[in-house]
């Protein structure tokens, strides 16, 4: 159906092989037959956890993000390890970063947060039945955990206080779920 838009890979090479990220450089043929190059970040994927308490508050993190040199408010999240099941990753990350475990998990959606320059995908999960426990932060990981009403999150998004794309999208999903406007499959 969209074949008139497809680009065809001619050659592919690894332009940069870092500890966490890899940059791919491909020569491609455009739909009009011309050739060009595409560079993009290879990413293993990640999970985002939307921890919702029975009282309607959400569990959040404050974490410094070096590329933008500031602290961001975010939902718990983390990179999927090679061969790791995304739900297992979500459960692991929630416990490691916040100390909480959840008795109910539902897959919300998959998002692609940087389609122009990365193959990264994020799997969003709703976590309910939260029980506090002890955090097990990774070495070199520093973050604060706190609770806030969903209404505050919506205001922070509107005011530009929350700008992290996974957190903005997760907040909009939570609003639809909590108000009953969107149902998740069981």
UniProtKB/TrEMBL annotation:
Its cofactor is Mg(2+). The keyword Hydrolase applies. One of its GO terms (cellular component) is cytosol. GO terms for biological process: nucleoside phosphate metabolic process; ribose phosphate metabolic process. It holds the Pfam family NUDIX. One of its GO terms (molecular function) is hydrolase activity. Keywords: Hydrolase. It catalyses: GDP-alpha-D-mannose + H2O = alpha-D-mannose 1-phosphate + GMP + 2 H(+). InterPro entries: NUDIX_hydrolase-like_dom_sf, NUDIX_hydrolase_CS, NUDIX_hydrolase_dom. Belongs to the Nudix hydrolase family. NudK subfamily. This is GDP-mannose pyrophosphatase. It comes from Collimonas arenae. The lineage of its organism: Bacteria, Pseudomonadati, Pseudomonadota, Betaproteobacteria, Burkholderiales.
């Amino acid at each position: 159906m969209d074949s008139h838009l497809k680009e065809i890979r001619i050659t592919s090479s690894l332009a940069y092989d870092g500890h966490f990220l890899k940059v791919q450089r491909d020569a491609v043929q455009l739909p009009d037959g011309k050739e060009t190059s595409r560079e993009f970040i290879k990413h293993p994927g990640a999970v985002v956890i939307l921890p919702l308490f029975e009282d309607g508050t959400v569990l959040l993190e404050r974490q410094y993000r070096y590329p933008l040199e500031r602290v961001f408010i975010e939902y718990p999240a983390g990179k999927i390890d090679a061969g790791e099941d995304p739900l297992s990753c979500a459960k692991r990350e929630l416990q490691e970063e916040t100390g909480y475990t959840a008795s109910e998990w539902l897959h919300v959606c998959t998002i692609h947060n940087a389609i122009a320059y990365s193959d990264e995908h994020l799997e969003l999960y709703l976590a309910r039945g939260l029980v506090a426990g002890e955090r097990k932060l990774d070495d070199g990981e520093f973050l604060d955990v706190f609770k806030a009403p969903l209404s505050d999150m919506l205001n922070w998004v509107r005011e530009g206080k929350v700008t992290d794309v996974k957190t903005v999208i997760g907040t909009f999903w939570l609003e639809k779920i909590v108000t009953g406007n969107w149902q998740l499959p069981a």
